[in-house]
Please model this.
Amino acid sequence: MLELSMHILDIVENSTRAGATLVKINIVEDTKKDIFSIEIADDGAGMDEDTLRKTLDPFFTTKEVREIGLGLPMLSHSAKSTEGDFTIESKVGEGTRVAAEYKHSHIDRQPLGNITGTLITLITGNPEVDFVYCHRNGAETYTLDTRDIRRELEGIPINNTEVLKLIRENIEEGLEEIGINEQ
Amino acid sequence: MAKIKIEDLKKIKDKVKAETSLRAGERRVKVTVHMGTCGIASGAREVLDTLISEIEEAGVTDVVATTSGCMGLCSREPEITVEIMEQEPIIYEYMDTNKMRQVFRRHILNGEVQTPFVLAKGAERTK
Model:
């Protein structure tokens, strides 16, 4: 994975596969404390303790088509290689929370990259799931809550081409306002 | 803070309602971009992005883009499955943004299967 936004896409795909109806993605950038943190919390099926312990083993997966599962091990590795930290918590029937903390200025911290593409991909592929994306950069915050959009659409699918275009413009504009350069 | 304008959403709502009442069969093509860890790492997100902008540019409403997981052929990612109604699904391998544009314009819009990029015929199985 070359970008943090790719890790986010990958981990949220786990959430949607676990039957989540709401996924919250929180990003906090604090250059004073030199922190870049990513938190993903879902209300999916969750995992028991035994499964949870195995999630960072690259040779463990719940999929049947192959025998390796690299998503979480790679995220954990990317955070730890920047003197950061990684935690995962889960409860059966309640959901899962994944948090990765990076040292903002560390040379090995990947750039956030195309987060707009990540969010549009998630909405396109999982139109029945709601996403709340909250990005704090210093004192400024941008929030996208698909529940608000869905309420206004009254049954029109959220992955309609024109709705997606509107959402894309909103994210791009919103991130620019809080000073995020996606490169 | 940037806000999605409610008037804009209302406009889309009215337009879609008008279109749906005119349309007989709605979904002609379903395109699935495989979005597993392997797909994402090799560029599937950019392939889907291209597909969405091609659909937007062409102004077609009967092509649906969606995503799925990994189907176990990780070394051939990014993969997409093109399912045209009443035809056998086609799975393409090693996709990129240029190949996606070509497949969209030639196969999805014109019905010519782009043989050099084809991995297999038939339905996928992802789990």
Q: What stands out?
A: Residues 47 and 96 of chain B are 6 Å apart (CA to CA). Chain B touches chain A through 40 residues (CB under 8 Å). Chain B has one domain: 25-121. The mean pLDDT of chain B is 88.
